[in-house]
Write a structure and sequence with these properties.
The protein has about 375 residues and is of the alpha/beta class. Helices cover about 30% and strands about 30% of the residues. The chain has 2 domains: about 170 residues, FAD/NAD(P)-binding domain, CATH 3.50.50.60; about 140 residues, D-Amino Acid Oxidase, subunit A, domain 2 (D-Amino Acid Oxidase, Chain A, domain 2, 2-Layer Sandwich), CATH 3.30.9. The protein has 8 helices and 18 strands. The strands form 3 sheets. Strands 1, 2, 8, 9, 10, 11, 17 and 18 form an 8-stranded mixed β-sheet that branches. It has an 8-stranded mixed β-sheet with strand order 5-6-4-13-14-15-12-16. It has a two-stranded antiparallel sheet with strand order 3-7. The longest helix is centred in the first third of the chain and has 22 residues. The two termini are about 35 Å apart. The structure holds flavin-adenine dinucleotide.
Length: about 375
């Protein structure tokens, strides 16, 4: 039976970041991924990197923002740190108010985010039009802009970690799904499709599937698999400034470095079916986008897909120690790529020091017991 200090189950960006950070600190690590790389939500997301996390407001949002701020910073340095291009770009993000209800909510968030030291500024429709002339000023009543928010290519983030892990002589085993984790006298026995393994520590990083494994050891993490649709267009001339968002409709649109327009709107009902995609999504997206950027009215959409966001009841992640040697990191909803570099670093420290990093304390995975 192969033996390791730490086995990371789940080779999405989160598991890879934990493995990378443990390896950098001289630990012996092995990653078991049940599918192909990018099979999970990492391979299906928009790559928008934001400090202005809009979740858990009034219930610890400041802790999420703290983590997101650090994540944003570390994402910016990931290409130079690993030598692999993550296609990071500080393009900014503009959150739009299209009606009075949007405006009232964004004003409240503005006061809150300013108190947390975020660089958000309010823009009038005319100021928006002056900065980005492709936007119709009559379609919005205000915008809240942060120039320091950014984008990265999620595949680039995965390649960066996988390549750095490979250079440190560790393996990411693909197509090797873990079915069982058992506690032994000196660690854990892990049963996967291609064999059995022993480890002193196990990190479960399986997003919405995490609880299927942790429950075997008595730790249930309530996770709802919230599905989200995404579309992408043919590549067009790069013209886009910041990512655009409208919080009330969960609308987000950005332009990739290849020139494709990529976006999302609404939530689907919870579920695991990734094959379903709807025409309602396409229509609602067009209805939201075209009045804001009329020049996109004849855009050809070439692909639609669906991804799963792992949501906890309090909208905060579940990360940290469950038991001696057993760790979990999941529940990152639709903001996990931002968090990946900082959480990997902090969880690696938590494992090595056997003491929860202060920034992770608010996200104790045992809080649902
Ligand atoms: C549509 C969509 C848009 C999003 N947009 C953004 C965005 O713009 N910005 C942002 O910051 N975040 C965004 N997110 C969230 C982000 O994608 C995730 O939070 C982040 O990628 C989480 O990574 P992860 O490694 O935890 O999960 P995943 O990438 O899902 O990785 C989990 C891995 O575990 C593997 N696995 C599961 N069970 C087992 C098992 N039993 N054995 C072995 N392996 C197993 C899976 O195959 C998978 O590869 C979005 C998510 C979605 C779905």
């Amino acid at each position: 039976m192969s033996k390791y200090e730490t086995i990371v189950v789940g080779g999405g960006a989160m598991g890879l970041s934990v493995a990378y950070n443990l390896l950098r600190r001289g630990r012996n690590v092995h990653v078991l991924e049940g599918d192909y790389l990018n099979a999970g939500s990492t391979g299906r997301n928009l790559g928008v990197l934001k400090a202005r996390n809009p979740y858990a407001v009034g219930n610890g949002n400041k802790d999420l923002v703290k983590l997101a701020k650090e994540g944003l910073k570390l994402n910016a340095g990931l290409s130079s740190e690993t030598g692999i291009n993550t296609f990071h770009k500080t393009s900014g993000c503009l959150i739009l108010a299209k009606d009075e209800a949007d405006y009232k909510q964004l004003k409240e968030y503005h006061t809150h985010f300013k108190k947390l030291g975020l660089d958000e500024r309010e823009l009038t429709p005319e100021e928006i039009h002056r900065k980005w002339s492709y936007m119709d000023p009559d379609s919005v009543i205000a915008g809240f802009y942060s120039p320091s928010e950014a984008n990265a290519h999620p595949f680039g983030v995965v390649w960066a970690y996988v390549e750095a892990i490979r250079k440190m002589k560790c393996q990411v085993e693909k197509q090797n799904k873990v079915s069982k984790i058992e506690k032994t006298s000196d660690g854990f026995k892990i049963t996967a499709e291609k064999g059995e393994y022993e480890a002193e520590n196990v990190v479960v990083a399986c997003a919405e599937r995490s609880s299927e494994l942790t429950e075997q050891l008595g730790y249930k993490i309530p996770l709802t698999p919230m599905r989200k649709e995404v579309l992408i267009s043919e590549p067009i001339r790069p013209f886009f400034g910041p990512t655009l968002e409208r919080l009330s409709t969960h609308f987000q649109v950005t332009q990739t470095m290849r020139g494709e327009i990529m976006g999302t709107i609404d939530w689907m009902e919870p579920g695991y079916d990734l094959v379903k995609s709807t025409s309602e999504f396409l229509e609602h997206f067009a209805d939201e986008l075209v009045p804001i950027i009329p020049v996109l009215r004849n855009l050809n959409i070439i692909r639609q897909w669906t991804g799963i966001c792992d949501q906890t009841p309090d909208e905060k992640p579940a990360v940290g120690k469950l038991d001696d040697g057993l760790y979990v990191t999941c529940g990152y909803n639709d903001y996990g790529i931002t968090m990946v570099p900082i959480v990997g670093r902090l969880l690696a420290s938590t494992i090595i020091n056997d003491e929860t990093s202060p920034m992770l304390k608010p996200f104790d995975p045992l809080r649902f017991e």
